[in-house]
């Protein structure tokens, strides 16, 4: 007789065993709709074995356990997938943040470098405009301009304007951020190097400017002392002695300062101001002296000319300035005699240009003497004075000419300013030529045989007077320094002007 256990066991029919076998096959992977017939037969055999074994096992319910197992497995798989995905996302976020930080750091360093670089280059280019006369060593100035003048992009190798506009944006990708950071870093090193080179060159130029300032100060002081001494010398008996005493003291103080080292504009300022003031006081108290003031002598050749000389005299008379006329002896005839008298009567100086417009050096000694003597006689007969100044036609002369001039008591006066009125025959061109080239002590060569020259006189006089020039005769310009038998092109050729024309105002 069977007990309940046996009864329950007996109740497990073949269908239950088939179902359990099927579940086991599902767990073990033995059940697969895609397997071939052999796999199916294997399942059938395995199912039969399981069925036989199941008849010997206690009754159990595996289905809930399997479900739990599968659920845990699925949850774990999901957690693993989420963890991996989150890890990948976090890694990319960290990489992007690092790229952004690197880019921003590079941009910050670039911004600091380019600011210094730009300021240095701007200052260097401005310094490079310094006049060469203000630099002791002009090669240093050239070197600075070479360095500072080179195009930025060609030196750096990058477009700085484009980099200046670039920004490290959080919306940019990692590769773009890394590329931009690389560009910033690539620009920093060459900019830093060039900044150092340009700054070094600029410092050298600044030092050279200071050196030149010292030279300029010493030169200026020396010039003032020389000018003051000349003013003191020529003013004896012409001004109040108290003015000369003050000037002498100022000269002594400046001379003592000259012997010191490291002269600067500041250290010499007071002494030079006192010296200039004392010099001006004496000079202003004296009558006009062309050794001390800006003077120019207008001279006219080839007259008298009955047509144009009167026009020239009218222009000079209206302007109120004297001039020196070098006349040809052959022209002192007829109505020109009265014209020459008028010229002398109006305060103009009369010099000789020999008898005719023949180059004197081409004449024999006898013919030269005859030409000069005849002209001097003609001038003396009209004006009552024998000429002491001779101008050689075309400026051509020789030792024979100088010797004959000396024998006749005449100095040979040429010119250092050619008006070229004979060439242009144009009043405006004549004005420009004279005004643009005249210096203190100049002798200007003009001709009273052209109407254009007469028309140019008013503007010549006005524009040079506006520059502080005084118009004088040649004899006044040379202040008695002209000696017979010597040649003069300007006031500076005279021994009385060994120190140069001492006019600075």
From TrEMBL:
InterPro entries assigned to the protein according to its UniProt record, in alphabetical order: Glyco_hydro/deAcase_b/a-brl, NODB_dom, Polysacc_deacetylase_ArnD
Annotated ranges, domain NodB homology: 294-472
Gene Ontology CC: membrane
Xref: Gene3D superfamilies: Glycoside hydrolase/deacetylase (3.20.20.370)
Keyword Iron-sulfur: no
A Gene Ontology biological process term: carbohydrate metabolic process
Transmembrane regions: 65-85
Entry annotated with the keyword Translocase: no
UniProt keyword annotations, A-Z: Hydrolase, Membrane, Metal-binding, Transmembrane, Transmembrane helix
Any GO molecular function: hydrolase activity, acting on carbon-nitrogen (but not peptide) bonds
UniProt xrefs under PANTHER family: CHITIN DEACETYLASE 1-RELATED, GLYCOSYL TRANSFERASE-RELATED
Protein name (Swiss-Prot/TrEMBL): Peptidoglycan N-acetylglucosamine deacetylase
Species this chain originates from: Bifidobacterium vansinderenii
Lineage start: Bacteria, Bacillati, Actinomycetota, Actinomycetes, Bifidobacteriales
């Amino acid at each position: 007789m069977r007990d309940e256990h046996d009864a329950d066991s007996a109740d497990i029919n073949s269908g239950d065993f088939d179902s359990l076998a099927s579940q086991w096959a599902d767990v073990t992977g033995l059940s697969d709709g895609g397997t071939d017939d052999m796999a199916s037969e294997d399942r059938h055999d395995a199912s039969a074995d399981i069925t036989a074994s199941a008849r010997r096992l206690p009754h159990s319910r595996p289905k809930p356990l399997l479900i739990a197992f599968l659920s845990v497995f699925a949850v774990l798989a999901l957690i693993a997938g989420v963890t991996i995905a989150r890890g990948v996302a976090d890694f990319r976020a960290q990489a992007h943040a690092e790229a952004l930080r690197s880019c921003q750091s590079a941009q910050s360093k670039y911004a600091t470098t380019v600011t210094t670089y730009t300021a240095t280059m701007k200052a260097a280019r401005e310094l490079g405009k310094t006049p060469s006369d203000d630099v002791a060593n002009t090669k240093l100035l050239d070197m600075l301009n070479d360095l500072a003048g080179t195009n930025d992009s060609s030196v750096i190798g990058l477009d700085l304007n484009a980099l200046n506009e670039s920004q490290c944006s959080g919306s940019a990708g990692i590769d773009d951020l890394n590329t931009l950071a690389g560009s910033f870093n690539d620009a920093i090193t060459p900019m830093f190097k060039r900044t150092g080179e340009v700054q070094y060159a600029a410092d050298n130029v600044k030092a050279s400017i200071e050196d030149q300032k010292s030279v300029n100060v010493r030169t200026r002081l020396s010039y003032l002392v020389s000018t003051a001494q000349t003013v003191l010398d020529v003013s004896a008996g012409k001004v109040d002695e108290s003015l000369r005493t003050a000037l002498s003291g100022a000269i002594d103080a400046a001379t003592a300062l000259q012997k010191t080292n490291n002269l600067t504009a500041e250290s010499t300022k007071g002494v030079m101001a006192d010296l200039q003031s004392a010099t001006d006081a004496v000079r202003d108290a004296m009558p006009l002296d062309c050794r001390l003031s800006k003077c120019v002598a207008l001279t006219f050749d080839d007259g008298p000319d009955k047509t144009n000389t009167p026009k020239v005299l009218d222009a000079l008379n209206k302007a109120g300035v004297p001039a020196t006329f070098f006349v040809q002896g052959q022209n002192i005839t007829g109505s020109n005699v009265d014209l020459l008298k008028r010229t002398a009567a109006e305060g103009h100086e009369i010099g000789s240009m020999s008898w005719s417009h023949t180059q004197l050096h081409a004449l024999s000694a006898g013919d030269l003497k005859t030409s000069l003597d005849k002209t001097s006689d003609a001038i003396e007969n009209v004006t009552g004075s024998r000429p002491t100044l001779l101008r050689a036609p075309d400026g051509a002369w020789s030792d024979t000419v100088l010797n004959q001039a000396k024998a006749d008591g005449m100095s040979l006066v040429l010119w250092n300013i050619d008006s070229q009125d004979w060439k242009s025959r144009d009043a405006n061109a004549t004005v420009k030529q004279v005004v643009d080239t005249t210096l203190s002590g100049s002798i200007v060569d003009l001709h009273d045989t052209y109407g254009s020259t007469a028309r140019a006189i008013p503007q010549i006089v006005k524009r040079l007077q506006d520059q502080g020039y005084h118009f004088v005769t040649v004899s006044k310009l040379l202040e008695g320094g002209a000696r017979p038998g010597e040649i003069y092109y300007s006031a500076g050729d005279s021994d009385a002007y060994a120190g140069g024309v001492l006019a600075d105002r």
